[in-house]
Amino acid sequence: MVKRLPILLLALTLALVALLLVPAHGKSARVFDYAGVMSAGEAAELDEYLARLRAETGYDFVFLADTELEYRDNYEAAERAAIAHADDFYDHGGFGDASNDFSGMIFYLDMVNRIPIITTTGEMIDIISDARLADLFDIVYSYLYDADYYGAAYNMFARAKEYIDAGPVRGQYRYDAGPGGVDVRIEHGLIKPAYMRDITAIDILVAAGAGFAVAVIYYVSVSSKYSLKGSTYKYDLLTNTKVEITEARDIFVRETVRRTPRDTTHHGGGGRGSGTHRSSSGRSHGGGGGGRRF
Questions:
Q1: Is 262 a member of any domain?
Q2: Domain presence at residue 153
Q3: What is the distance, to the nearest Å, from the Cα of residue 290 to the centroid of all Cα atoms in its chain?
């Protein structure tokens, strides 16, 4: 028993070191490297950095790499599946805070289809516009092509922090990039949500009532002008306001087509819109895929 004690202590020491080097996938962990793309030291360092970002911004930041999805030859289908997987991982992982609409972002590497995904939630949707998202992917691809997965994640999150500090660009807006999207406009740096909803029966009645009231007021006003009060002459409204259409022709005058180029300027200088989509949980997300494999 005495001889076995040093061996037992050595085993316990090695286990403790392993726990210190590899971030536990518990409530506080934000690095989930199920594909083994980083060393234990890199994963621990990135997890520590993401914890600092959470403390400084109040937003959440998650890294995920796995081989869960099946391979798809069709890139668009593979990207859609990867986006849905990233959204669900964030939504069902307990990330974000309800006080700020679970604001945050997830960087996901689909190591089967070799597709990078960046999706945003809450206030991060408005901060990471399409132009800024393109800039983040430029950073990501520059490291992924060299198989530097730690560099891709660390530098991407660092640039996202710069955008958080800068805030949403003036005139930023959301647009529906998929089924069930939402529309939110930001004016002068203030977020003004305007979630779309169906027109109700009450809306129709109020609109009809307002229209009827305006018509009555206009009729009474015009009628009083032609009543010629104080005179024995009475203006015959029905006879003198009769209109007969004897001929009808449609004349085409001209056609004007105006094209506006899509702004793809990086670094927030343009491309102020943020495309949104809904996950399986019904939550709204921004971001998406980088458009090509690595």
A1: no
A2: yes
A3: 15
**Cβ neighbours of residue 82 closer than 8 Å, sequence gap 6 or more:** 69, 108, 110, 113, 115, 117, 289
With a CB cutoff of 8 Å and minimum separation 6, the contacts of 259 are none
Q: Could you give the angle at which helices 40-57 and 4-21 cross, rounded to 10 degrees? A: 50
Whether 221 is in a domain gets the answer: no
How far is it, in rounded angstroms, from Cα 271 to Cα 265?
6
Q: What is the CATH number of the domain that holds 103?
A: 3.10.310.50
Percentage of residues of the chain with pLDDT beyond 90: 57
pLDDT tens, residue by residue, 141-174: 999 999 999 999 999 999 999 999 999 998 899 9
pLDDT band at 268 (very low <50, low <70, confident <90, very high): very low
Nearest Cα to 132, choosing from 3, 263, 278?
Answer: 263
Q: Tell me the C-alpha distance between 84 and 278, whole Å.
A: 9
CA distances to 87, 133, 229, 281 from 92, rounded to whole Å, are 9, 23, 75, 8
CA-closest candidate to residue 95, choices 290, 275, 283: 283
Angle CA 121–271–164, to nearest 5: 45
Return d(Cα 109, Cα 106) in angstroms, integer: 10
Q: CA torsion sign, 166 to 159 to 285 to 275?
A: positive
Read off the pLDDT of residues 21-75 as tens digits, 9 standing for 90 and up.
Answer: 444 444 579 999 999 999 999 999 999 999 999 999 999 999 999 999 999 999 9
Number of folded domains in the chain? 1
Q: Which ranges in the chain belong to alpha helices (H)? A: 4-21, 40-57, 75-92, 123-127, 130-144, 149-166, 201-225, 237-240
Query: With contact defined as beta carbons under 8 Å apart, do 66 and 88 qualify?
Result: no
- Report CA-CA distances (Å) from 57 to 30, 36, 64, 167: 15, 28, 20, 11
Find the distance separating the first CA and the last CA of the chain, reported in whole Å: 55
- What is the reported pTM? 0.64
